[in-house]
Structure formats: C-alpha cells, structure tokens
Amino acid sequence: MPDAQRPLRPSSERKRSAMLDAARNRFLEDGYDRTSVDAVAAQAGVSKRTLYDHFVDKDGLFSAVVERASAALLDAVQEAVEQELRADRDLGAALLAFTRRIATQTLQSSDYAVVRLLLDSGRSIAALESDLAHGPELVLAARFADLAAAGAIRTTKPRRAAEHFTALTFLLALGTPDLDAEAVDELFVDGVEAFVRAYGPDRAGA
C-alpha cells in the first residue's frame, strides 16, 4: 500500500492535526500569501521537513486545511438538519431554528472562516469545489425529500426546494453587506415565512 494511503499511527495523526491547527491559525491571522511554512512548523512544534513530508508544499497544506474545514462544515450542517428539521415539528419553527443555528454557530466558526478565506483569495481547489458549492444544499435536499414523504412539506422536487430555501435565507443574508444580527434574523423570519407559504403542507407547492 502506498504511503499516502496507509492509515496514520495515532501519534502521526496527532502530529498531522497539530500541523493543520497551526496552519489554520496562521492562514486566518496572516492570509495565504503572508503565511510561511516556517511559522506553521514552529507553531506546531515540528520541523519544516516533517511538514513537507505530510503536505509537500504550502499549496498542499492549504488544501488540507480547507478540506478539513469543508468536511467539518458539512458535518455541522448534517447534524443541524437531523436535530432541527424533524417531521414532528412545525415546519416554520423547525426551519427558523435551523437557520438561526447555522448563522450563530456554523457561520461563526473557524471552519467557515477558512472556507471564506479560500473564496475571497480567488484560489481554486478543484477536488473541493463541488462539496463547497453544493454539499450543504444536497444535505438539505435529502431532508426535504424525507419531509415530503412524511407529508411535512409539499414538493416533488426537493433539490429545487432546497435551492429556493437557501436563496431566501442564507444567500440573501450573505449577499447583503453590513447587516447586523437583528436584521439578519428578520431576513431569516421573512425567508422562512415565504418558503412555508410556497411549500407548507397546507399548500400545493412546487
């Protein structure tokens, strides 16, 4: 089995995690261009050679940091979906709880900050582009399909419903500059109400 595919020993996994933590901190503090491999290695308490053995170069290190952050974000969205978007809850209340949780927890996390750093830098990581662009929406679409089967929402196109919900809430909030927390919450309330009017169980939605 090639070294790249061999499972890491616990000590090596801890060392890799420490390097990724240090790299995340440096990238967020200094930006990609000003972050040096020497600074990351020093903060992680490893040699530069050890860091290169794991990640080859700074691009590889940055890709690994973003990959870990992207996976953590998807896990957070999945957990929020499972805990908040249940068929036994009022649809509007469940959706509002979900949006508030994502806004106050997931979008305030260092993992989201890393992804924003990637997007703002104009850099591209081809292997992650689909996950970053569509992963959360696909998770939401899968839950909407379950809710539709349970009669909690009315749609035969759960992916389209997920796109509509995202556009009415998160995309609108993220695309509107200088909103304070109260304004964001009002936007979410309005977006959820509009979605429920279109897709609620008492309406023949899309």
Short description:
By secondary structure, this protein is mainly alpha-helical. It is built from ten helices and no strands. Helix 1 packs antiparallel against helix 2, helix 4 crosses helix 6 (110-121) and helix 8 packs antiparallel against helix 10.
Structure description:
The protein has 206 residues and is mostly helical. It folds into two domains: 7-56, Homeodomain-like (Arc Repressor Mutant, subunit A); 66-199, Orthogonal Bundle (Tetracycline Repressor, domain 2), CATH 1.10.357. Helix content is 74%, strand content 0%. It is built from ten helices and no strands. Helix 1 (10-34) packs across helix 6 (110-121), helix 3 crosses helix 4 and helix 4 packs across helix 6 (110-121). It is elongated and about 60 Å long. Mean pLDDT is 89; it is low at 1-5.
Overall tally of structural domains = 2
Roughly how much helix do the residues carry, as a percent range? over 70%
Structural class: mainly alpha
* CATH fold type of the largest domain: Tetracycline Repressor, domain 2
Q: Looking at the structure, what is the overall shape?
A: elongated
* Biggest pleated sheet: none
Distinct helical segment count: 10
Query: CATH superfamily name of the largest domain?
Result: Tetracycline Repressor, domain 2
Number of strands: 0
Report the end-to-end length measured between terminal Cα atoms.
Answer: 50 Å
Going by CATH, the architecture of the largest domain would be Orthogonal Bundle
Q: Please state the CA-atom Rg, rounded to the nearest Å.
A: 20 Å
Under the CATH scheme, which class of the largest domain? Answer: Mainly Alpha
Compute the average pLDDT: 89
β-strand percent reads under 5%
